Structures are given as structure tokens and as C-alpha cells.
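hi!! sorry for the late reply, been swamped w classes. u asked for the two structures so here they r. pasted raw, havent cleaned anything up. first the sequence of the first protein and right below it the C-alpha cells
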Amino acid sequence: MARTVCDLKVELKRKGIKGISGLNKAGLEKLLAEGKPKSKPTKKEDLKKKSESFERKKPKSVKKPAPKEKPILRIENIERPKEKPVKPKKETKAQKRSRLKKLEKENIRLTNLKTNLQALEKDAGATPAEKIQAKKQLDKVDTKIQELKKDIEKLKLEI
């Protein structure tokens, strides 16, 4: 009676023999007759044998230094990088003219605000709190206008 490959595989499985995949009919018959597949050493076994034959010398144990205590995290303990002084870039004449125009526009805006605040201060329909607030704002605007005029004069001299 001729056995098929399938019959041979079933019989090998019943006996618990592994490693039947990839074998042809003759290989399956031979495996069934011998009872065990030829075991090939695995990579782990190869590595064990090699490591046993080439025993490495263990390095001498080095004592680790005691761990340093970490300082408490405070603003004083943080090291900040030293800041390099920033050299001001020289402005070209075109840049100075542009900055001068911006300052003059700001001056015009503040003078308009000043006239509006003066009108509010003299307005009969304004409440006393509004008049006080207008007076405070007027003082701030006056100082800003004085600073702007100084800056404008300096720029005009440079150009």
C-alpha cells in the first residue's frame, strides 16, 4: 500500500516528531523510520560554545565615587550665561529719515490727543471724575510730547 505525503505527516504528528515542514516524501519516510530529526545547533547554542572557548577577562571592579548632593533648586543657584554687550548697529540716513517720520507722526497723534483732553477738561457736561482722569492723562501726554520733541531734534541734527 502506497502512503501519501499527507498520511506520512499525520503519522509523524501522532508520534510527536517535529520538523516536517519542507520535506519531500522520501525525507518524511526517512524521518518516520529514524524517529528523530537531525538537530541543528541553534544560534544561542553556537554563541554559548564560542563564549566558553573564548573566556573574557573581567575588568577589575572600579569603585564609584559617592554621588554628589544636588543643590536645592533656587534662582540663586542657577548659573546664567554671561551676556555679551550688544553693539548698536549704525543707522543709515534712510533709516534715520524713516524713524524721524514715525516720530513726527507720533507727535501729531499726541498733540491731537492733548487737544481732545483739554476740551474734555473744559467741558461743562463732563463729570468731576472724568475731568480728574483727563487732567492725569493730559500730564502724561505732555511729558511724552516733550520727550518726542527732544528725540526729533536729535535725529534732525544727525541727518
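now the second protein. again sequence first, C-alpha cells right under
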Amino acid sequence: MAVTFTKIYTSRVEISPKATLGDGTEVTDYVDGMVMEVRGVSGDFSATRGEWVRFAEPSTKTASDYASWSSLSAASRPTWVTDAMTAFEPTVTGDVVAMIQAQFNAPEYPSVTGWAS
């Protein structure tokens, strides 16, 4: 069974109003994580798995490599968000395939199709 995967970056983001960076700098709008999803499709069957993906702890950042979420959200997707998805995707693709296989292998009862959609 061939499965095509799509990475989905959602708008569900957790932001800390204030944070202290590793160099002691106090900042606002620190993005802690995002719900990321991986959708798989195989023929008529599909499944999506999403989870909170945590970004770097504030203690690992400095003023020189920090940008507030408000300035990032209007720009193109930052590399570190893409890197987080790249690390997340392989951890859930097996589950997505299993969910699709469960649909494929489920028994079908023709008498139900009159109201099933």
C-alpha cells in the first residue's frame, strides 16, 4: 500500500508572554511549541496524526538568535520550525499507516451504506 504524506503546520501555537533567555535577556512572545500534523492518503483512505511539537527552551537561546512570535508570524516559515517538522514526521508516519490499514481491513456492511457518509 503506497501512502502519500503531507506535512501540516497548524495555527495552534503556544506562546509564553514572557521568557528569560540563556544570556539573561528578558523577552516577550516566546513561542514554545506548535501542533504539527502529518496526513497520509492511500486511495480512498486517509488518516491524520497531530501532536504538540516543542521548540527550543528559552534557556538555549540568546538575544542574537531570538525573534518574537509577532515578528515571525507575518514572515515566511522559519527554518527551525521546518527542522522541528522534519524531526517530528518520522515519529508518526508508522501510526498514520496503521490507521489507514485499519480502515482498509475493516469489514464493510452494505446495509449500512444507505445512511453512512
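hope this helps!! also noticed smth abt the second:
The helical segments are 69-72, 79-105.
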